[in-house]
Write a sequence for this structure.
């Protein structure tokens, strides 16, 4: 990675995405602006229908925006043809981790075969690729003996680590993770979050998309809050949690169930709801 | 005991297939306006316990020991007809997936009105009027509009409200919420929990809240039962469970929550200082913020 | 794949029988002890040292006719399957990837073919292209291709939208890569089942077309042809249809056994796509129409 340390790995400006619906169209993303610096971890928080997955899919070139600009690793990809997208993806600078690790791994391919795929697509030699795969398995704390297993023969936590390792084999500058811990039980969730912290500390930029403020807050440097297709607030993770400014962020923080009984917060939540609907 | 609406004493549930007791020795009692929470992972027996209270245990499960009293009545010898009379009018329930409990081809309002007509014997027009009132008390905006809609036109949170509406339409004394907010977004979950708390205060509804999430139960309940593998490992007032847990499983639940929940950050919450404008926030929201700054300050 | 199929007992039996049938197809005409077309006065004879399976109504040696006919029969079945593969499976997979225009046209074509009455179509094609086995098999292949189109398209669709295919796309995979690496193994089992059944239908259809004077011209022997002529003289030689029936049934059974073996060794995802019974049901219906 010889990236210029000041150039953002992702720079999204004024992104608009519409989906066609039976009646008219759905404005899924409204003038979204967001950037990720090299090695930075940015959390994107949003609930159902907030447009958080649309943001990820637009950045990955799976959804075509109707306005705005996307720059990935210094390359303006906004108007890219399918061929140029493929060339960019083969460089492996941008990777993606799906929510459901079981469905994002081919059930008929062994762990090793799945892991080596991005490298083979990129045209690397098989021997070199296999060597890298071994290194990545170690990096996500997976026993090399698991590499001949099929995804169905792994536990949920192991599968998610395979999915993360798969995203890392090409030494990407940016990894987008869409709800990477939502499908895991609480013990595995804690371990997966630890793994993400290690990646962050190793210098990989992460875009961590989730509905759960609690899991993002511990990993992200900055957090962007998406509400109804709009980024309503961006700021350092701690200040989003401790000093949220936008009413929606306040409601989000105030709604997360905590162990401190929160009956007294009801009136505050009500006031915020009124404000949001006004 | 006299004014208890629900009392379980030493309830055991037996599975005839495996010939084992799958729930052992559950006891608690509820007076009007009180709330009991049951926490445990799937398979801990929490759902079977609530099904026993509703008289809808799956086939080959039976209450093998202990007693359940609903509104002072032992439910052990009830006939099917007597159960039908009790459900809805005395005890009612909402579950995790609201959409599957509503008929997709009927307007949601008419499904609430149906409960009123069957359970309360109201005439058609009166039932409709009451159903709209009920939707309004559930804090649904535009209750007349919602009455006319079909289940697929409503969001998960709205559906759960409608379902709560059908559950409380016949003014039951006890409402069981079994993972009723599990599949919902955080803000919607809070709305539903707030609504349940409000119903409890306003109508004196007694609640049994069942969840895998200790925090959800803690928000709403006076007393908590922690269940694992069919057994109650710890039971007591919510504050005791949270701050003075005795059983290691309870401690584990609390520790897990502290590891990934928001709690660890909220502890360091500072008193609100002057708000620094965030340069990264997208432009258009800033003026909205300014407009609401005054209101926000007193709200926050 | 073949090695895993041979690991199964059913797979070994299927491959063994099919290999024997293939040998018959290649060398059968040479093995015929007598001229399969030469008639004699010794008509409808019972088995003897001279005619091991007896003779038919024109006094021709039945064993020789069966051996000599094996090549045409097998060739016919293979042609039908290849035709279905090329006209059905390839567009079925491509219809998912080549854009809306191609998808629309192929879907409408498939609908049209399903709606065509078989006999009218067969007669029309013969009128246009002339009479012969390739023409007849071309017709049958076209007629069964909509089934293959639908089976392969449905399998492709369900795989193409799965996250692991999207993951490959995000890694920069081309369509060719995705088909080769992810799709083929999942699409193959349902297609294999359909193919095996079609091969079976093929044997029967060759003979049923002979009735119409399409395809094989009467003196030339086929398994189905021998069966048809034997059926006409049941009262003289009630056991006679047994020989061609056993040949046809063994081959069809082996095809089905092979298809089952393919299903058993294919992965989880491929198996999930299989609706063996529906595929078989639709083929049976197609066979009845034929």
């Amino acid at each position: 990675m010889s990236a210029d340390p000041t150039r953002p790995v992702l720079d999204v400006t004024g992104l608009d995405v519409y989906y066609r619906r039976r009646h008219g169209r759905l404005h899924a993303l409204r003038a979204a602006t967001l950037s990720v610096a090299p090695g930075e971890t940015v959390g994107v928080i949003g609930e159902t229908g907030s447009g958080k997955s649309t943001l990820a899919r637009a950045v990955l070139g799976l959804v075509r925006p109707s306005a705005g600009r996307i720059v990935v690793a210094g390359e303006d990809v906004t108007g890219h043809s399918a061929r140029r997208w493929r060339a960019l993806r083969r460089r492996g600078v941008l990777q993606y981790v799906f929510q459901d690790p079981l469905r994002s791994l081919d059930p008929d391919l062994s762990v090793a075969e799945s892991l080596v795929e991005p490298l083979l697509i990129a045209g690397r030699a098989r021997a070199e690729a296999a060597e890298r795969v071994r290194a990545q398995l170690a990096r996500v704390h997976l026993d090399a003996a698991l590499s001949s297993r099929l995804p169905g023969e792994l536990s949920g936590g192991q599968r998610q680590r395979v999915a993360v390792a798969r995203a890392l084999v090409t030494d990407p500058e940016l990894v987008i993770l869409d709800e990477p811990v939502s499908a895991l039980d609480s013990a595995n969730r804690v371990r997966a979050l630890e793994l993400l912290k290690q990646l962050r500390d190793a210098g990989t930029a992460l875009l961590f998309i989730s509905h759960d403020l609690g899991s993002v807050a511990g990993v992200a440097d900055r957090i962007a809050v998406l509400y109804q297709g709009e980024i309503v607030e961006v700021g350092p993770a701690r200040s989003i949690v401790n000093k949220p400014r936008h009413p929606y962020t306040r409601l989000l923080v105030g709604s997360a169930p905590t162990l401190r009984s929160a009956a007294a917060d009801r009136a505050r939540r009500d006031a915020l709801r009124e404000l949001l609907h006004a | 005991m006299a004014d208890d609406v629900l009392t379980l004493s030493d309830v055991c549930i037996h599975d005839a297939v495996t010939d084992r007791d799958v729930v052992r020795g559950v006891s608690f009692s509820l007076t009007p306006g009180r709330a009991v929470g049951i926490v445990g992972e799937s398979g801990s027996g929490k759902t079977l316990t609530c099904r026993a209270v509703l008289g809808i245990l799956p086939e080959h499960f039976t209450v093998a020991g202990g007693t359940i009293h609903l509104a002072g009545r032992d439910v052990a010898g009830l006939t099917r007809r007597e159960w039908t009379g009790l459900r809805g009018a005395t005890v009612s329930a909402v579950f995790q997936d609201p959409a599957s409990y509503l008929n997709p081809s009927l307007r949601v309002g008419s499904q609430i009105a149906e409960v009123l007509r069957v359970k309360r014997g109201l005439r058609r027009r009166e039932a409709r009027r009451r159903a709209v009132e009920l939707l309004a008390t559930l804090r649904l905006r535009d209750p007349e509009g919602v009455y006319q809609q079909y289940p697929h036109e409503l969001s998960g949170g709205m559906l759960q409200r409608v379902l709560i509406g059908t559950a409380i339409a016949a003014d039951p004394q006890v409402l069981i919420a079994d993972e009723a907010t599990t599949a919902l977004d955080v803000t919607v979950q809070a709305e539903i929990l707030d609504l349940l708390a409000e119903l409890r205060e306003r109508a004196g509804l007694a609640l049994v809240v069942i969840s895998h999430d200790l925090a959800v139960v803690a928000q709403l309940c006076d007393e908590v039962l922690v269940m694992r593998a069919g057994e109650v490992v710890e039971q007591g007032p919510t504050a005791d469970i949270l701050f003075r847990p005795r059983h290691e499983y309870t401690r584990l639940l609390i520790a897990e929550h502290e590891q990934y929940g928001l709690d660890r950050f909220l502890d360091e919450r500072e008193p609100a200082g002057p708000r620094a404008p965030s340069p990264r926030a997208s432009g258009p929201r800033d003026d909205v913020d300014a407009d609401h700054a005054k209101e926000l300050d007193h709200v926050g | 794949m073949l090695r895993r199929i041979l690991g199964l007992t059913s797979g070994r039996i299927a491959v063994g029988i099919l290999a024997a049938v293939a040998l018959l197809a290649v060398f059968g005409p040479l093995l015929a002890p007598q001229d399969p077309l030469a008639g004699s006065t010794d008509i409808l004879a019972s088995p003897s040292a001279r005619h091991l399976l007896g003779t038919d109504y024109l006094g021709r040696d039945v064993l020789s006719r069966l051996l000599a006919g094996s090549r045409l029969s097998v060739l016919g079945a293979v042609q039908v399957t290849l035709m279905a593969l090329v006209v059905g499976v390839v567009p079925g997979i491509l219809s998912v990837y080549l854009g809306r225009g191609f998808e629309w046209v192929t879907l409408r074509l498939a609908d049209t073919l399903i709606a065509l009455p078989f006999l009218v179509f067969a007669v029309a094609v013969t009128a246009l292209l002339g009479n012969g086995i390739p023409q007849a098999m071309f017709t049958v292949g076209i007629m069964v291709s909509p089934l293959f189109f639908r089976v392969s398209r449905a399998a492709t669709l369900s795989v193409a939208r799965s996250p692991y295919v999207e993951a490959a796309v995000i890694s920069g995979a081309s369509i060719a890569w995705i088909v080769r690496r992810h799709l083929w193994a999942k699409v193959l089992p349902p297609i294999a089942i359909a193919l095996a059944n079609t091969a079976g239908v093929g044997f029967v259809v060759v003979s049923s077309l002979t009735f119409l004077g399409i395809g094989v011209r009467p003196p030339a022997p086929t398994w189905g042809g021998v069966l048809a002529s034997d059926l006409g003289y049941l009262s003289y030689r009630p056991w006679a249809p047994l020989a061609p029936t056993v040949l046809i049934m063994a081959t069809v059974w082996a095809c089905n056994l092979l298809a089952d073996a393919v299903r058993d060794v294919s992965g989880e995802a491929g198996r999930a796509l299989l609706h063996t019974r529906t595929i078989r049901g639709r083929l049976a219906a197609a066979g009845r129409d034929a």
Q: What stands out?
A: The domain at 24-187+203-245 of chain C is CATH 1.10.3720.10 (MetI-like fold). Chain C has a mean pLDDT of 79.
